[in-house]
Each structure stands twice: as structure tokens, then as C-alpha cells.
Amino acid sequence: MSLAESWDRYAVASKPRRTVNATGDTTWLNWTQYADHGPNESVLGSVAGRRVLELGSGSGSNLAHLVTLGATGQGVDIAPARETVARERWGDLPGIAFRTAEATAFLKETDETFDVVLSIFGAVWFVDSDTLLPLIRLRMAPGGILAFSHLPPGSQGPKPAKSGLRHDRTPDEWGRTLTGHGFSDVRVSLIDPPEGRAVGTMLVRAFAA
Ligand SMILES: C[S@@+](CC[C@H](N)C(=O)[O-])C[C@H]1O[C@@H](n2cnc3c(N)ncnc32)[C@H](O)[C@@H]1O
């Protein structure tokens, strides 16, 4: 089974996001593995008028939220089923686009630049950083922000067959890796889990100088 097929199986087994969250919103950004938990989009600064790329955009719901706030959004996901679901739910939003592609392949062929690159439990977690980060950096506008989340090192999580190793890193390791690939002002936060749950979430932000 190819990597795309493997992620497609995972996509088909994934539950769609609810239409309304606990506070009555119809779109929202969810950095963590828990519903109604964690910081919102404010950790990115204002996104109005900014070009956002999401690598591993899944059902497109996080990207759609940023587009409702005035961003333009390009979602990229390796699994064809993800593009279908994302287009069905969010394709009518002006300024949003979804594409089936492997993240490194997309970054190699695009000539666009982005102000915000996002990856929520997405490609940044699953693709070798020495391959992916230089490609991301090349496509980022000066002052742009890369933000991604994943489980803290040592936790369980999605790992479809053939996905290879997940790139779990400690905060210090992300600091060194991102700085080594030309990012600056690396900020790593550990988001506590909700009450009764054991595993938190790592949120990493870094800037293109
Ligand atoms: C755990 S899911 C998270 C999806 C979404 N970001 C969310 O928060 O609901 C990981 C996603 O990354 C995609 N993905 C994994 N490796 C990828 C790659 N190399 N290029 C593009 N997408 C990838 C998968 O198909 C899947 O949709």
C-alpha cells in the first residue's frame, strides 16, 4: 500500500468535525487532539489578508476558520479522500482551495509564497524535517510564521503503515532544528491536557526572518 493509500484509509475512518462547537461557533481552530480545548487562532496574530498554507489539512475545518477571518487558504493533503470531504464542506468559501499532494512535492512545484504555514498533527510531524523545513522556509514571506502542533515526545498517536517515523522532538530539539533551517524566534508551548486526560499537546511557532 502506498503512503497516500495508507493515509486515505485513515481519512475514511476519521470522524467528521461537529458543525457547532461548545460555544456555538460554526468554525474554529483546534490545535489539540481534544474538542473545545486549547488556544485559538490568536497565537498566529491577525490572519486577515494573509496567505495561509496548511500541510496535512485533513477535513479543512481549521483552514476554513482562518479564511472566515479574512485569510486566503491553500490546503494540501496527501489523501484524496480528504480533498473530497474538505471541498464538500468548505469549497464554497471565497478564498479557499484544496489540493491532493504530498507536502514536499507541493512545495517543490509551487511558486507561491505564504505568510502563515500551518500543520496541525500534519505533515510537519510525519515528514523528515531536513527535507521539509528548507522547502517550507523557501516558500515563506519575510516575517511569516510557521506553526504546528503534535503530541509530546513518547506519546501514542496516528502512525499509518509506511508513514515512517513520526518526528517527535523535545522543545530544545525543535529549537535547534528550526534555527538550523533558518527560522528564528522559536516558541514551544506545552498545552496541558483537559481534566482527566493524561497527554498534552506541543505547539511550536517559528518565524521566517
Ligand atoms: C492526524 S491527521 C490531521 C488532520 C488535520 N490537520 C486535523 O487536525 O484534523 C494527519 C493528516 O496529514 C496528512 N498527511 C500526512 N503526511 C502527509 C504528507 N507527507 N503530505 C501531505 N499530507 C500529509 C494525512 O493525510 C492526514 O490528513
UniProtKB/TrEMBL annotation:
Lineage top rank: taxon: Bacteria
Keyword Disulfide bond applies: no
EC number: 2.1.-.-
Enzyme class: transferase
Organism: Streptomyces edwardsiae
Matching InterPro entries: Methyltransf_25, SAM-dependent_MTases_sf
GO terms, molecular function: methyltransferase activity
Keywords: Methyltransferase, Transferase
CDD domains named among the record's database cross-references: AdoMet_MTases (cd02440)
Region (Disordered): 151-176
UniProt xrefs under Pfam families: Methyltransf_25
PANTHER family (UniProt xref): TRANS-ACONITATE 2-METHYLTRANSFERASE-RELATED
Protein name: Class I SAM-dependent methyltransferase
Domain Methyltransferase stretches: 52-144
Gene Ontology biological process terms in this record: methylation
Biased composition (Basic and acidic residues): 165-175
